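Per your request, structure below.
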């Protein structure tokens, strides 16, 4: 999963987007993108190593769209935050909130 995210973020850096937030995410936030992606794949807000170890190989065929959604969630956590994101805990709280909103919307749309 992390390798797939790494490849995707490297392609963003090569393409030199005009989006400064996206470029910063591609450079510095690989683990955060991977964390959000794990939540999207498992459909669980708090992913543990035990949950990840029970994933099927087919669950690891991750589309670019799913990685893009993960990046969008991280962008929202960064852009729409009024808290100091220089502190890791603050960013993690905001990321958890945005991921929860996304997962909630998936659940509502699948009804």
């Amino acid at each position: 999963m992390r390798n797939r995210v790494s490849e995707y973020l490297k392609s963003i850096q090569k393409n030199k987007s005009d989006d400064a937030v996206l470029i910063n995410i591609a450079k510095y936030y690989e683990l955060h993108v991977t964390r959000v992606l794990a939540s999207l794949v498992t459909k669980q807000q708090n992913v543990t190593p035990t949950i990840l170890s029970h994933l099927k190989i087919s669950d690891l065929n991750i589309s670019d769209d799913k990685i893009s959604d993960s990046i969008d969630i991280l962008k929202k956590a960064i852009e729409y935050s009024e808290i100091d994101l220089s502190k890791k805990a603050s960013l993690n709280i905001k990321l958890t909130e945005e991921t929860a909103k996304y997962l909630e919307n998936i659940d509502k749309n699948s009804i």
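The mean pLDDT is 84.

Regards,
D.
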